[in-house]
Each structure stands twice: as C-alpha cells, then as structure tokens.
Amino acid sequence: FSFSWQTTFQDGGEEVEDGAVYNVTLKKVQIQQAANKGARWLGGEGDQLPPEHTVRQYETSKIRAIKAGTLEKLVENLLTAFGDADFSYISIFLATYRAFASPRAVLELLLDRFGNLETSSHGEVANLNSLESEMVLRVEIASVLRAWLDQCSEDFREPPDYMCLLKLLDYLKNNMPNSDMESRVQNLLKQFQNQEVEAVDGFCSTSSSDLVDGEELEISNPEEFSSFQDHVVAEQLTYMDVMLFRRVVPYHCLGSIWSQRDKKENKNLAPSVRATITQFNAVTKCVISTILGTRELKIQQRAKIIEKWIHIAHECRILKNFSSLRAIISALQSNSIYRLKTTWMCVSKDILLMYEELSEIFSDHDNYLTSRELLMKEATSKFANLDSSEKENQKKSQKRLQLQKNKGVMQGTVPYLGTFLTDLIMLDTALQDYVEGGLINFEKRRREFEVIAQIKLLQSSCNSYCLIPDQKFIQWFKRQRHLTEEESYKLSREAEAVADTNILSPKSQKSMVKRISTLFLGTDVFTPPKEQPPKSSPVGGSSGESTDSASVSSCEFNHSETEDVCVTPVSSPEDPLKKGSISSDKGSISNKGSDSNKGSGSSKGSIFGPGLGSDSGSIPTRDLGSVLSSAPKVLPVYNRQSGGSCIIRVSMDGLHASVYKSILITNQDRIPDVTQRALLKHNLEPDAVEDYELVQVISEDKELVFPRDANVFYGMNSHVNFNFILRKKA
C-alpha cells in the first residue's frame, strides 16, 4: 500500500475552564491510501491511483493552546501541554515567566502542588491507577525540570543560599533518588557555590580598576592605532561582542523587565544586556577619540583614520558582526565627526562609496527592513552575503571572503541588540499583561517569545566563531580615554572651525543623528545644537561617568524607536558624490511632523512593520504555536490611530524632558487616566495627578493643553507627532 497525507487546520474557537482560557485548533489529516499492484493497469502513473480508485480517510485531532490563565493553571499546563499538542509551550513559558512570576513561586507550585501525587489536582492522571499515575507524573515532572535546567539554569543562581536549587535537590532525593537529574542538580549547586557571584566580564570597562598597575587612561596614539591591521581590529571587536552576546540572558530583554531599569532599586537589573550596551558605547567612543583625540593631526591624517575605521567596519560586515558595525557607523555619523567637512573631502571616493553602502544596512526605511532581512538571512549561514554596487569594493569583498572560505572558518552572527529591545518594549506597551478576570495574558508571552527565539538562534550561531583574543589590542582598547560630548565637540571645532554650510560632507542616513544615551538604556538623551558647544546630559559619556551612558546612532524619527530615546533632527550633510541642497536646521524641524507620520505609515499594519509579526524577515520559532495564536495582527502603533487605540510618547517637563515613555491609550481614556499611567511609567507618585497637566507638542512654538476631563484620543492632534509633555502646574 502507499499513503499520502494532507493536513489542514481549522479554528475551533475557545474553551473556558475555571482559571484558564484555551484557543482550540482542529487539525484534520487526510490519509490517501492506495494499493500499489494494478495501479498502472488502472491508469495511474507509477504507484499513484486515479482519484476514483483511492481510499480517503480523515483523522481529526484537537490542539489546545492556553491563551490566558492564573499562575496555577499556567504551571499545571507545563504538565499537560504535550497531551494538548502545544509542543512549544514549555519553551515559551520558561523564556517569559519572569515577567509575571518568580522562580520560587513557579517551583513551589510545580513541586508542592502538582509534583506530589497524593495532593495533586492534575486531571490527566486522575483516573489512572496509582502506579501508572506515579510513573506518568514522574516523567512529566522530569521533562519540565530537564527543560528548565537546559534552557534557564541561571534562574537557580541565587547566592548565597540557593534556596530554589536546594528545594529542587530535596525533591529529587525523595522522589527520584539516584537519578541523573539528582546528580545534575548537585553538580550545578557545586558549580555555583565554587564561583563568585558572576558578573559579566568587563571587556569594555574603562575604569582604572581594570588596568594593570601603573597604567592610566590615555588618548589614542595614532601611530599605535595604525599598527593594528584592519582585520585584526574587527576580529578582536567581534571576539568581545561574541563573549558578551552569548551571555545575554534572554528574559533580561523582555519589555516589562527592561522598562524597570531606571528605578533606583533596579540599578543592577539586566546586567547581561547592560554589558553589551556598554561595549557598544565603548566602540563608538573609541572611534571618536582616535579621530579627534590628537590635536596635532593634519586633515589628511585625520581622513586616513576615518578611512581605516570604514575598512574596519567593512571587516566587521564580513565577520557578520552587526553590533560593532553599527557602533562604528554611528560614531562616524555623530555630530562631532560628520561636521568635519574638509576632512571628509579628503576621504577617497571608493571608501566613501563603501561607507555609504554600509550605512544603508541600517536605513530606517520600513522599520529597518534591510537590517532585519539581512540579519535573518545570515543568521545561520556560514559566511556573509556581500553585494556591492561598486565594482572595486565588490572585488575586495569577494577576495576577503574567499580567504575566509579557504581557511574553512565559519562565522556566526552578532546582532545589533537594540532592534530586539525595541520590539520587546513595543510589544509590552501594546499588549495587556492581564485580560478579563485577572488572568495572565499568555498570548502576549507567545508574541514575545517570537523575538526571544530569534535572540537564542543568533546566540547559538555564535558558537561557530573561532577567534583568539589579542591581549595587545584588548589592553590598548581598555586604555582609551573616552571623550565627553563637550570635549569631542570642542576638539571638532578646533580641528575645523564653523563649517560653511555650502561645503558638502558625507551623507548621514537622512541626517537623523540621535544620541542613544541609551539607545537601549533610556537615560536622559541629549543632542547638541548644530554649531553650539553641547551641554552635559544628566547621564553623560565620559570615562568617569556611568557605564550606561550611550553613543550615537543614526535613525529617522520613527515609531519603532526604543522607549526613552529622544530623536532630534540635525541638518543633513549631503553625499559629496551626489548633487543636492542642504536643508537648514529650521527646515528640518518644520518638516519633522510630516516625516514622522510618513515613517509610521510604513508599518503596513503591524507594530513592527515588516520585521516582526510579518512574513518578511521573520523565522518560524513556535512550531504549531503560530497556528494557535489568536493575537490581533494589527497592534496599536506610535503616530497612528487605529482600532480605537494608539501609542503616545510622554516626557517630563524640565530636567527629564528628553526622556520619553511609550503609553498605550484608547478612545475611552481621559486626562486623569493617562496622567496617572505617565507618572507611574516615570516612577513618580501616581496620586499626584491633580498636580500635573498634559500637553501635546504641536511645533516648537505651539502646544495643545488638554482640559482636565478631556478625552485624549479624540482631543489630540493626529496630524503631528504623538509627543506629549507632563508638566507640573504653576
């Protein structure tokens, strides 16, 4: 006999139980059966019978995926998910549960309530005999615990007491004595106890404590920097990025956790993410200090350093290191570097073309569609896919790539983490934590897992790198003294006086330059005026300041920007190889609203545009979970009202005016509701609603002040940016 299968899925609606809501999908499998013998005689080709001589059988199975539930139900579902054919549930839960529960709470429910057969309310085994029940339950518990230890062993790192790990060990000794699981937990406990509280290795730290005795921070020596070969610098930056990215704990990236980083009590929150950000900033500041740090440099010498950094960026591209690549490009597009118009005129035409092509990777068109697609295309590929419109650059790229292939060296992929942080923050803003009845919204966690799974995939790919640390370069990198904004701007003006606006300089991504005073971190953001000495940001970027300070990055004012980052347009220097006029600062500002609306309109109905939540640039990560999700495809977005909701950005007037928070509003929300949520987001006392007024920024000299009980959704001006200020009443 021969068989063929055809599978179709049908929405089966919802099932509601006490404390849980399930999405039901009916999986219908058509089995076509035919006898091989005589098939050809009956007119079939090969072993295939004509349709009228086949036997069709249908099998229908029900797939249940929990949509929302109490914590107890979500934990119980860990044991029943396989029976319900929700095969990705355990991975999704383990990757996201820290957003709504602690490891201790989950472990206690799993072991005390559901792991004890005598008191268990676990329905699946209730009707089995005692021995079978115990065997089934033991297998299910072991399966969950094994997955937990495999995927999230760091959840049990709780020095000095390790309460969860000891509780788990005690359970295993009583219920699964002498098992592999017991040995594994014992080894993990010893490993944790023999280590000091693990802090992420500070490759990027520039504090004197990381230096050899007698060494001091120094401004880069151009000759010493020039002695490092371009590919060596790129490899060492990649080595440092890989070590840090592999240590990123995925749940640290969740929007609900990351958005709490500004609270005083959370200064040590998400250290693995902060470390990657600090490294990104260190690379950016190293680029700036090597270009501006030596006053005696001639224009041609400074141009050569810029050329060297462009070559290093290109080597990072070959290594598929998008983090350092973006850090270098961001530095070259910073205010103090891009204004060096005479210096840029000395950069060769071929290298400028290379720079422009590398910059286009991070174009913000369609919510960074180019970089998203490129990242997913190369996530698991062995080598970079290098295309260049310029023949000479194409030849050089292919030659370098061929050398890599000849050595048999495979490359992983290091992403720009800010893209994922932005997506997770927007998801956290757009989707509710709880649904009707106070149930935990697990559909939100499924959506978040789509992003987390991409991070995990890229972390796995990093195992392909085979890079050896060069201590000479690493020590040089650590010794670099980072210039503050004021210092770099002052040195830039010393190198070249106030530039003639008619002199052309390199294109800078549609001239949108933003200071990431935390591109991911969300501390106060500062962008200096065009030709004025900058003022200090509250959290700055000098070597003696917070390591969470940020570098620069180019991006257009766009709804996808990460929370807490204020984007200020700077007048655009044009590409010296192309003709065109330069808009003034005034012109840029006056056009800000239309540009922004245009940007938000490119999302094509998804909060993430083509990057996440659409077919383009995404990867399948949830098996059947993607079929089961009933989350709305169109989510609220910034700068556009749709479906009776939208996302606005609210900043505090005064000291924190440059820091914004993303807030979801609906057509039912009035001023007190929105004001209270804004105060909570900014970690202020929510009861002080009466002391503040909400204002929409229409333009530089116009504001829309809302009456006390106004409906914000209907009262706001939807033709300008959805930017609001919370101001204390006089």
TrEMBL record:
In terms of CDD domains, this protein maps to: RasGEF, REM
User: Where would I find the Ras-associating domain in this sequence?
Assistant: 644-730
Q: List residues of the Ras-GEF domain.
A: 229-498
Entry keyword annotation includes Chloroplast: no
List the transmembrane segments: none
Instruction: Outline the extent of the N-terminal Ras-GEF domain.
Output: 62-193
Which protein is depicted?
RGL1 protein
UniProt organism field: Pteruthius melanotis
